[in-house]
Amino acid sequence: MTRQELIQQIKQKQSFLCVGLDTDAKKMPQCVFDLHHPFFEFNKAIIDATAPYCVAYKPNLAFYEAYGVKGMISFENTIKYIKEHHPHHLIIADAKRGDIGNTSQMYARTFFEEYDVDALTVAPYMGEDSVTPFLGYEGKWVILLALTSNKGSYDFQLTADAQGERLFEKVMKLSQQWGNTENMMYVVGATQGQMFEDIRKVAPDHFLLVPGVGAQGGSLEEVCKYGMTKDCGLLVNSSRGIIYASSDDHYAEIAGNKARELQQQMAEELKKAGII
After folding, report:
1. pLDDT 10s per residue in the chain (276 long)?
2. Closest-CA residue to 44 (of 75, 66, 2)
3. b/e for 161-178, b at 16 or more Cβ within 10 A?
4. Catalytic residue at 96?
5. In whole angstroms, what is the distance from residue 244 CA to residue 255 CA?
6. How far, in Å, CA of 86 to CA of 22, rounded?
7. Distance (Å, whole) CA 214 – CA 17
8. Considering only CA atoms, which of 20, 61, 13 is closest in space to residue 237?
9. Beta carbons of 166 and 145 less than 8 angstroms apart
């Protein structure tokens, strides 16, 4: 999916919602375990219920790898299902890969050729040669970790050098020499709030993938106030707040309702910004 196609979907659906598919057997409703492929069937029901209200899906690889081969088959089937039945949705593999060049090449081949996802989260700590192999695929997105939503982000990401430049700012400035606004996004946690002002000084036009709205306490209104651009420039992710909103037989319907609620809030923000 190109940047322009993504913007078009945002305007058409009046939404910049990304639904995180963090599929966990300990949180899934009991009714799905009567099915032959419970993980996939759970994802399938969630996807069908939320598709009208979101523009992207983000399966987190840890939740599939934890169940071995069965989990990875569910991941692969989920990707195929989205592509076949909801082809206008961006598919982000949240895998946070990144290693020396030849290893990154294998990771890139895995996700962009074998699984054929649209985007992949990448850890930039090892520098340029660990990131550029992912940028060699036309029409694919690299989403670099910049300023994350977890408590530990304060340990390194906000540490300043002698000139007062913080690590996340250094990462974002330097990485723009490797990619551009057509193939690179950044992860910026919603719990960072007003920090979006500083983010936009460094990366005024890049799309940002924003986790932390909902279960982690981030404010959608605050994210939009400081982070939205003329093209929206945001993909706001919600995982637990949508997919585990209910644990009974109507879990998919409730998930759809939660996604619709967020979409309606997003439509208001898009209207306020004059985007729709």
Report:
1. 999 999 999 999 999 999 999 999 999 999 999 988 999 999 999 999 999 999 999 999 999 999 999 999 999 999 999 999 999 999 999 999 999 999 999 999 999 999 999 999 999 999 999 999 999 999 999 999 999 888 898 899 989 999 999 999 999 999 999 999 999 999 999 877 778 999 999 999 999 999 977 655 678 999 999 999 999 999 999 999 999 999 999 999 999 999 999 999 999 999 999 999
2. 75
3. eeeeebbbbbbbeebbeb
4. yes
5. 7
6. 19
7. 12
8. 20
9. no
Pick the catalytic residue: 26, 44, 80, 96? Answer: 96
Beta bridge partners of 40: none
Q: Which two tokens stand for residue 111?
A: 């996700």
Going through 166-205 in order, the beta strands assigned E by DSSP cover 184-188
